[in-house]
Fold these 2 entries.
Entry 1:
Amino acid sequence: MNDLDDLKRIREIDPGGMLEAEEGFYGQLAESKDIIAGTDLSSLYGKKFTGLAILGMGGSGFSGDIIKALAADEIKIPVEVVKGYELPAFIGKGWLVMAVSYSGNTEETLNALGQGINRGSHILVECSGGRLEKVASGSGYALIKVPAGLQPRGAIGYLFYPAYLALDKLGLIDIDEMDEDEALGLIKERSESYNRNMPAAKNPAKKLAVEIGDRLPIVYGSEGIYAALAYRLKCEINENGKTPCWWNSFAELNHNETVGWERLSGITRDFVVITFRDPDEPPKMKARIDVTLDQLGSNTGSIIQLMAEGKSKLAKALSSLYLGDIASVYHAILNGIDPTPVEKIESLKKELAKLD
Ligand code: F6R
């Protein structure tokens, strides 16, 4: 029996239930529609926003990356993703500042939010509790409250989707209902094909984990949603699998990184390159990626190409995200690693809190 089909072993290695959280991705997306329907955004209605800043770190910060990439074709105001303590000086009055922190206690996000508040920005907060919730309720800011009890990265459906839907409600973007139906329908189907009960021979997520194996992954994606997804998968492999992993994006990597593959092939032959692909890549992007993968040739152990599923940008983004996320949990389990704990993140946060 494949190790990933051994349900008892999975339970032993994953006592924190990270795989269960991933299996619940569709449920999180579906529930998000109710969450946003029950969220009071009235303090923001009728406002003419001059810019959108999305603040957040790590698993919460990814919401900003993917929303920016998804909205890029239609949003008419600048979108800035802020991952750090400082809000750039051009963000101030008239901007919508959306602070996303699952725990509600991430100090970089709280600090940058404080700067937005002081500059008179419009404020929207998304969290499951913590200090952010107190700030929002104390001052009457719009608050998207999401269910607690998960690791932030395992709550991505709850973090990304309500925030994205809120932008639609506020008139900044217009989400096509057919795209939503397509995306959610696809994720519902994949929840079955990626579920632990689906044997490895028929389960693309388990197969991807096995293909990565115990090699060092390098993740590539083209600018826009796939660059965001490449970064996300790198973070998932880091946090779930406790494995080093790096990422880069096309076209930028063609101006530097590819040259670096010329040396140390004795080491890089133990790497595996994972590339997000889109069936509708513009011809130049398709050619660029094909040529690049050829150039890497025998200097990499192997190349895995993940073709996005679905027609709409939303379906492609969510289906690619889902495959990478759940495969990273299987990858951890395959290597005997408990995916849940992130001891280095927690201990640093504690150390820094002592300075408050
Ligand atoms: C942990 C994780 C981290 C956190 C980050 C910020 O699962 O994914 O990357 O997301 O440390 O914490 P929150 O999301 O609570 O603001």
Entry 2:
Amino acid sequence: MSNNPIYAAIEAGGTKWLVSVGTSPETAVQTRIPTEHPEVTVGAAVDFIAEQIKQQGAIQAIGIGSFGPIGINPDDTDYGVIGKTPKPHWTGVDLFSTFSQFNVPLKIESDVNAAALAEAKSLLPNDEGRLIYITVGTGIGAGVVDNGRVSNGVHHPEMGHIRLPHHPDDNYAGHCPIHGACLEGLACGPAIIDRWGKDLSTLGSSHESHDIIAYYLGGFAANLLLTYAPNYIVLGGGVSLTEGLLSRVRQQAFKQLGGYLARFNQADGLGAVIQAPSLDTLSGISGAYLLAAQALQAHCA
Ligand code: ZN
């Protein structure tokens, strides 16, 4: 094995797939494929990897971080299979079988778990500590990494669907097709557009929407601090990029904790914990590379 193995890494998102082949996310050759009918999107990803193998040489492992729900336990029959999703034609799509055709070690995780892995690698030296990565975009999801490994239960967490109290000035019924006003139903990108007609950046920072969304995300962060006691909570995804939102989320988390966790004796104290992604928009694809490396390592062990 060479010192720098060539990997195929896929960030399989709900609106686009990023497929990358190379030795690192920074130097790899990559392509973006819109998430359309699975035959088209998955087919294009397979073709791209096959073409890159011709150009770069054999790959040694594949890592995939996928939108979910997706089976993430290698011992289960639904490993790498997309679960029940409102996205047309995608329920039951078997990523594990499809990408097994390359005959290399393969590891599949949820997209947020992959991003969490990469952020943890970046922010927690020596793989010590706990990090939670939250994405707020077309949906809301969160993944937990403990000491350098993704922490799942019998399935990957579905924290976007927890319930939080309504903001006193928000009577929106919610956007989630299953729960209505769960966290995702109240604070994801489509819920913002459905409620106010525009995204947060366009609405402007003095619009009530900013305080309302920060109330929900701050409440979520406070709950995570209370339940997981993480070293870091990283807030990623398109909605989180809204200017000024991160600071409001910290303030809301501080307010809703009510001084209970003494180590955060002022809102500034949360600045060290609730952060923007250190890898900018590369968290997801970097995580897929780490998954590939873990697959290869497990195979060689
Ligand atoms: Zn829901």
